[in-house]
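Dear colleague,

As promised, here are the two records you asked about, laid out in our usual form so they can be pasted straight into your sheet.

NAME FIELD: protein one
SEQUENCE, THEN STRUCTURE:
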Amino acid sequence: MLKNPPPKPAAARKITGVCLWLVLAIFTVLMARITLGYWPVRRDAGFLQIKQQYLGILHWEAAFWIHVFTSMLPLLAGFTQFAPSILKKSPAVHRAMGKVYVISVCFITGPASLIMAFYANGGLLSRIAFVTLALLWLGTTAMGWRMVLQRKWIKHREWMIRSYALTLSAITLRAWKYAIVFAFEPRPMDAYRIVAWLGFVPNLLLAEWLIRRSRQS
């Protein structure tokens, strides 16, 4: 009996890409559900139950609500930026969503995340992690913006890969948290200190690997 031939490399890459996009879409929906949990606005919803000591600090509250209700913007806008079909067939859509992404990260969600990072749970180790994440997110996005203004398209793509890898930390942090709690049942703050770093460091390493692989192809 003849066996089915192994998929061609192009077909395998397409299948892998579709699977990755499906996983990303599922986690994006879950993130949207978390966001909707804070509407209508109240001061005892979700994450706020363990942040009661910061209520009344105006800049923290403003940063929190900005982050909650705008963090989906870069996630969804970035979702469109690496789709070849959109880039080739609808460059105007690519540019428009790119502007939404850069504006939301550099001027809205990113600064709010930086403010919140100084008040992160888990003590100094967690705060260093989240401040580092916020600064890298702002910096890589600004560099991607700078490269497109200079029409350095390859560099632009590389910096935006790094930026979106950091955007996805909102998803990977939660995935790591569920996995670690399920496997090891650590104390909540211990788990938080670990996932504060795991949420973005592996993402950046994967981004650098993808960038170097594309340079060699």
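NAME FIELD: protein two
SEQUENCE, THEN STRUCTURE:
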Amino acid sequence: MKSNTLQALLLSLAILIGGYMIGDMHRKAKVYDRHVEVKGLAEREVNADLAVWPLELNLAMNDLNALNAELDRQKNRVNSFFKEIGFSEEEINLGISSIIDRDASEYAGNRNYPFRFFGKAEITLRTDDLAKIQLALEKSLALTSEGILIKSKNDWRPIEYIFTGLNDIKPEMIEEATLKAKEVAEKFAKDSNSKVGKIRSANQGLFTINDRDPSTPHVKKVRVVTTVEYLLED
């Protein structure tokens, strides 16, 4: 008899404890489920600190040896020209030269072209002196008087301006974006008679670097959006 009574008491106690735990878990789940997702934006305008100008020389002749010699002459002259402006050897990259024999192509049957051989030489300027590379772009027309015509590989954007200091401003921008996200969360909480609690989850988002506008490609706009979920408390 006593054994049955004890078992009944233990069973009742287990049911009470289980009910409490289930109720407590349900209450905590509801609290955890009360949250708000907000976004914070941080933007900076920065100056590019690296400039790259890829260019090429194009020549066409019927004499292979003459073409090869003229291509070398022009390539060396352009190299000297940029050194005269102030570029160092480290800032001038003399790329590969190539010559195509049009008669050897699969379309050799169509000989409606004035020159058989086509030659190309690549040169790239890479510098952190943005004013110097702009000067080189402006003065490059002077080479035409020597019979040398250099062509930018990218006509729509002759010089590529790059910002390399992202890691230096990342921490401040992430902090700024997170603070702005919290301001939005606090406004939402105030409107719903709640308080902002702990962070439930956070997503930094990707940094983007774009030109401020087409007219000033050397000025960049850096942007990051963070997404944060905050718990809400009464």
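A couple of things worth noting about protein two: The chain has four helices and nine strands. The helical segments are 2-33, 64-85, 130-139, 166-191.

Best,
R.
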